[in-house]
What we know:
Number of helices: 3
Oligomer: single chain
Order of helices and strands: HHH
Largest sheet: none
Mean pLDDT: 82
Number of strands: 0
Shape: flat
Structural class: mainly alpha
Low-confidence stretches: none
Helix content: over 70%
Amino acid sequence: MFRIFKMSFAVIIIILALIAFNYTEHTSVIQSVMLVFLGAVMFMQGLEERKKENDGSGAFNIYTAVFVWSVSLIGFTLHII
């Protein structure tokens, strides 16, 4: 089940990267949205690693996902200001 979500989020990230490459004037918003999906992929990967009893790698992925989400939140708020 996680694999389907990870693959769909990865496809969304690739599509957003291609859109950001074509529209250079709106990249700040697209990059923040792309970071949200990247964080979701990393979070799901962390949950999978925790299920495999690989707690160190799973915790690292979850912490990194939270960091990526906080960076995207900062990007959203800076774009609004």
